[in-house]
TrEMBL record:
Its EC number is 2.7.11.1. Belongs to the protein kinase superfamily. BUD32 family. The keyword Protein biosynthesis does not apply. GO terms for molecular function: ATP binding; hydrolase activity; protein serine/threonine kinase activity. GO terms for biological process: tRNA processing; tRNA threonylcarbamoyladenosine metabolic process. This is EKC/KEOPS complex subunit BUD32. Coiled coil: none annotated. Gene3D superfamilies: Phosphorylase Kinase, domain 1, Transferase(Phosphotransferase) domain 1. Transmembrane segments: none annotated.
């Protein structure tokens, strides 16, 4: 199926268009390219193309409507976040909601072990007793917490907050890692503390499942950054209270199987 989809993408972009598949999920495929969508002479930057393929099991008109709706919603969210102070996210470059394409700037780079600089891979790189609690790891996780806090402070939730959807990139001037949030396919505006509590719980569980030996300290550092990002302590208390309630519900479900 992926071969068929890739052929469809190449047909849409043009056979000579330089594009490489880098990941494939249930909802979308992600490609990278150095080709600007409007100016073929621009080849100094790298871009990400996210493509929502048509689902054959849906009625064509329903599928087309859903693809357009979800693509537009993600683009609107990106535009809002691009104009939000303090938040680190990719920049929207172009979109074709009728065909399910989103074009955005590429975030991330290669880690010393050759893997992509997602938070998940970064923590795996330090997954040993010698490196797990380095100050670099602490600083990165505090920054991650701050990014989530800024997002929530502005009444937005991510909706799929895993360590794979957080990417690190070095500052061009200082060489220090900055944290970026990516993949806003399930994101949106929400004033509900429940949604924010679920965001935090999903990330906590993701850290625990992939980095269990050091998860307690890692999640503590993330929450430290999260708390530091809140000016309104009453709002923070409400979110933390709901986060704990979501945690308790999750534990009960785990006990019951």
């Amino acid at each position: 199926m992926s071969t068929e989809i890739i052929s469809r993408v190449k047909e849409y972009l043009g056979e000579d268009f330089p594009v490489r598949l880098i990941s494939q999920g249930a909802e979308a495929l992600v490609f990278e390219t150095n080709q600007h969508p409007f100016n073929p002479e621009v080849k100094t930057e790298e871009f990400i193309i996210k493509y929502r393929p048509f689902k054959n099991y849906r009625h064509p008109q329903i599928d087309k409507t859903l693809t357009k709706k979800r693509t537009v919603a993600e683009c609107r969210c990106l535009v809002k976040l691009n104009n939000m102070k303090g938040i680190n996210v990719p920049h929207l470059v172009a979109s074709d909601p009728y065909n399910g394409y989103i074009w955005q700037t590429k975030i991330g780079e290669q880690l010393p072990n050759g893997t992509f600089s997602s938070l998940k891979n970064f923590l795996w790189l330090h997954n040993n007793d010698k490196d797990a609690y380095l100050s670099t790891v602490e600083e990165v996780l505090i920054k991650v917490g701050k990014q989530i806090g800024i997002l929530h402070n502005n009444q937005y939730i991510h909706g799929d907050l895993t360590s794979s959807n957080i990417v690190l990139q070095r500052d061009a001037n200082t060489g220090i890692w900055d944290a970026y949030l990516i993949d806003f396919g399930l994101s949106g505006y929400s004033t509900m503390v429940e949604d924010k509590g679920v965001d935090l719980y999903v990330l906590e569980r993701a850290i625990m499942s992939t980095h269990s030996l050091y998860a307690d300290k890692y999640n503590e550092w993330i929450m430290q950054g999260y708390k530091e990002s809140f000016d309104n302590q009453d709002n923070l208390k409400q979110v933390l209270k709901r986060f704990e309630e979501v945690r308790q519900r999750g534990r009960k479900r785990s006990m019951l199987g």
